[in-house]
Amino acid sequence: MGTVLMVVLTAAAAAAVVVAGAVRAGRREARAEGARLAEEARRRARRSLDAVWTMDGREFERYVADLCRRDGCTDVARTGGAGDLGADVTGRLPDGRRFVVQCKRYARHRTVGSRDLQTFNGTARAEHGADVPVFVASCVFTGPARRFAARHRLCLIDVDLLGFWNGGTPLTSFLDLDIGRSGTHRKLHPDHD
């Protein structure tokens, strides 16, 4: 009887080791698949922006204003131009808060640095009464720019997030992201999709 019990316990322990290994392998595979799917989603989002790369600055501002309207924002106006003091698009979010958007339609291989964000931060709330300052760029933000934005509660929408916004994700989904920790901060090669 003791030998049978020993054999059963040994078999059970061996089975537990096998199951635990399979669970760990499954988790690794799930994490790898999740990372692969996230990267593919970023690539699709960037590819969906092909029209953005052909726009000039004013067309880009109209495009951003249209996305705001699509998402239920009201009183949306494109105000960009000489002397706009950093307000290219203004309006009200669905919850009534006033937003001000600064748009930068740069080449995909460029970056937006903290100097542009410092200028925008200096006018968005004080000059334009923004409850929610939003900076939208067709490229990426530098690490120092993201950290500055996080400290001053600026919403940043870079090329990746712009692709998701273009794909139907509402503007309000981006307002509370921890922008200081997100993104790659890497410039894209001019021919990168």
UniProtKB/TrEMBL annotation:
Q: Which Pfam families match?
A: Mrr_cat
Which Gene Ontology BP annotations are present?
A: DNA restriction-modification system
- An MF annotation (GO) of this entry: restriction endodeoxyribonuclease activity
Top-level taxonomic group: Bacteria
InterPro entries per record: Restrct_endonuc-II-like (IPR011335), Restrct_endonuc_IV_Mrr (IPR007560), tRNA_endonuc-like_dom_sf (IPR011856), Type_IV_Methyl-Rstrct_Enzyme (IPR052906)
Q: Where is the Restriction endonuclease type IV Mrr domain?
A: 54-161
PANTHER family per the record? MRR RESTRICTION SYSTEM PROTEIN, SLL1429 PROTEIN
| The protein's name in its UniProt record | Restriction system protein
Query: Which lineage ranks, top first, belong to the organism behind this chain?
Result: Bacteria, Bacillati, Actinomycetota, Actinomycetes, Kitasatosporales
